[in-house]
Design goal:
Length: about 90
C-alpha cells in the first residue's frame, strides 16, 4: 500500500511538471525541479487532511418532509380555503 502511495505522488509530480512545461509556464529547469519536488509533498498533505475511518456523529439532522396529500384531499382543502366549490355551498 505504501508503494502505491509513493508511486501516485511521484506520478502527480511528473504529470504536473510535464503539463506546466508543455504549456510554457516553467521558465527554467530550476522551476521544473521545484514543481516536481513540491507536488508530492502537497499531495501527501492533502490526503492527510482527509479523515479515513469510522464516520463520526452526524453534524446536522435531516429535516422531514410534510406528508403528501392525495388528490381528493388536496382539492377539498383548497376549496374550503377559497370558499369555492359548486356543491351545496354555492346554492346558499
Amino acid at each position: 500500500m505504501v508503494l502505491v502511495a509513493i508511486s501516485l505522488r511521484l506520478f502527480a509530480g511528473f504529470a504536473l511538471t510535464a503539463a506546466l512545461g508543455a504549456s510554457g509556464q516553467l521558465d527554467n529547469e530550476t522551476m521544473a525541479l521545484g514543481t516536481g519536488v513540491a507536488t508530492p509533498f502537497i499531495v501527501a498533505r492533502f490526503f492527510q487532511s482527509i479523515p479515513v475511518g469510522e464516520p463520526g456523529p452526524r453534524q446536522h439532522s435531516e429535516t422531514s418532509l410534510p406528508a403528501a396529500r392525495g388528490p381528493a384531499e388536496g382539492l377539498e382543502a383548497s376549496m374550503s380555503e377559497t370558499g369555492g366549490g359548486g356543491g351545496a355551498d354555492a346554492a346558499r
